[in-house]
Write a structure and sequence with these properties.
heterodimer; A: mainly beta; six-stranded mixed β-sheet; 0% helix; globular; B: mainly beta; four-stranded antiparallel β-sheet
C-alpha cells in the first residue's frame, strides 16, 4: 500500500536553512502537501505542489519534487525559532476517496 | 469565521467507558475525516465520510464508531473495545472531489484513559 516516510528529527541554528525530506510511494499522486503542527494544535497547510511541477516557491518556503525518485523536500530559508514545529508530508490517493496519506512527521528544533 | 471546532480539548475516561468526541464544521465541506495521532507515528485514518449518511472505515477503525446525520457534524465515539485509546484525535474536512484536495483541521482533542 501507499507509504510516506520522513526522518523524525532535525535541529538547525536560527538563521540557517532547514531542509526536510520525504519519500512517497504512489506515483499516481497528483498533489503532495506540507503541513505544520505546533504543540497541542491541529495541522495547518503550509504549501502544496502539483505533480507536473518540479519546484514551487512561496516566500521563505521552497518545495522540490523529484517524481522519478518519488522524493519531496521542503526548504525553509532563514529559519526562525517560530518555525520550531512538526512538519508532515502527505500524498493524495487518486481513487474516489482522495484521502491524504501522511508521513510520521519531522520535528524541527531551531536553536537560538 | 469559517472553521472546524472540536470539543472537548481534553478528556479523561475510565477504562470501560465510551466517550464521544465532537467535530463541527461551517465550511460547507462534504467530506470529513477522523485521524489519530500517536508520538512518532504520524496520523492514522480512523473513519471518513464523503457525504451525509455515509462513511467508510479507515486503517484503524476497530473500537471506534461514527455517524454522519448532518453535513456539519461528524462525531467519533471511542468505545470500550478500543484497547489503547489514549491519543490525540484530529478531525478534518475538505471539499469533495478532486481540486487541490486541501484538508482543513480542527485543533484536536486529547483523550487520556485513567
Amino acid at each position: 500500500g501507499e507509504d510516506v516516510e520522513q526522518s523524525l528529527f532535525l535541529s538547525v541554528r536560527e538563521g540557517d536553512s532547514s531542509v526536510i525530506n520525504c519519500t512517497y510511494t504512489d506515483s499516481s499522486s497528483t498533489y503532495l502537501y506540507w503541513y505544520k503542527q505546533e504543540p497541542g494544535a491541529g495541522l495547518q497547510l503550509l504549501t502544496y505542489i502539483f505533480s507536473n511541477m518540479d519546484m514551487k516557491q512561496d516566500q521563505r518556503l521552497t518545495v522540490l519534487l523529484n517524481k522519478k525518485d518519488k522524493h519531496l523536500s521542503l526548504r525553509i530559508a532563514d529559519t526562525q525559532t517560530g518555525d520550531s514545529a512538526i512538519y508532515f508530508c502527505a500524498e493524495r490517493e487518486e481513487d474516489s476517496s482522495y484521502k491524504l496519506i501522511f508521513g510520521s512527521g519531522t520535528r524541527l528544533l531551531v536553536r537560538p | 469565521d469559517g472553521g472546524i471546532t472540536q470539543s472537548p480539548k481534553y478528556l479523561f475516561r475510565k477504562e470501560g467507558q465510551n466517550v464521544t468526541l465532537s467535530c463541527e464544521q461551517n465550511l460547507n465541506h462534504d467530506a470529513m475525516y477522523w485521524y489519530r495521532q500517536d508520538p512518532g507515528q504520524g496520523l492514522r485514518l480512523i473513519y471518513y465520510s464523503q457525504i451525509v449518511n455515509d462513511f467508510q472505515k479507515g486503517d484503524i477503525a476497530e473500537g471506534y464508531s461514527v455517524s454522519r446525520e448532518k453535513k456539519e457534524s461528524f462525531p467519533l465515539t471511542v468505545t470500550s473495545a478500543q484497547k489503547n485509546p489514549t491519543a490525540f484525535y484530529l478531525c478534518a474536512s475538505k471539499k469533495q472531489g478532486a481540486g487541490t484536495g486541501e484538508l482543513f483541521f480542527g485543533e484536536g482533542s486529547r483523550l487520556t484513559v485513567l
